[in-house]
Amino acid sequence: MIIIGYQGIGKSTLTKNSNGYIDLESGNFWWNGQRPHDWYIYYCQIAEDLSRQGYIVFVSSHKEVREFLKGSNEKVIVIFPSILIRDEWVKKLKDRYEESGKEKDFKAWKNAEDRYKENINELMRSNFYFIEINNLDYDLKKMIKDGIARLMKIGYSKEELHVDQSFDFWALEKVF
Length: 176
Description:
This protein is 50% helix and 12% strand. By secondary structure, the chain is of the alpha/beta class. The chain has a 5-stranded parallel sheet, with helices on both faces. The longest helix is centred in the middle third of the chain and has 22 residues, at 103-124. The two termini are 21 Å apart.
C-alpha cells in the first residue's frame, strides 16, 4: 500500500517507531541543487516495488507523484489535515522548522502558509480513497489501520492491499 501524505502528518515519526512502514523521502531526488524533470517516475516506481514487498510506503503529495500513482496497480490512499485546522497546522509546521532548522521544514511551513487551502483541495479531488485529520490530537497508525479496515470491509483483500509485512490482521478480525 502507498500512502500519499501531506507535510507534517507524521510520516517520519511513524516510520522511525514502527516496523513495516517506509518514508520515501522525495528530497533525495535532488542533484546539485536541481531535480531531474522525471524524478517522480523513479520515485514512484521505488514506492510501488516496496509496496509489492508488503511495506506501507509513505510518499510526498507532489502533483507529479499523485498523477503518476493514478495509473498504479498498488492501492493508494491519501492522508491530509482538514481545511478547518489550517492555522493550527501552519503553526505546527512553523514550530517544527524552528526546532529543526532544516530547509525542507522551512519549505513545508512556507508552502502551507501560502497554499494550504489549495493543497488540501487538490488532495481531496485526487480521486484516491482519503483519510482526513480533523484535529492535532490523532494517532496516525490507528487512522491507517482504521482506513485499511474500512477498505477490507468494502471488499479489498489483504493481498490487494499488500500490507502483510507490517499490519496486524489479528486486530482486524475483531472488526469483522
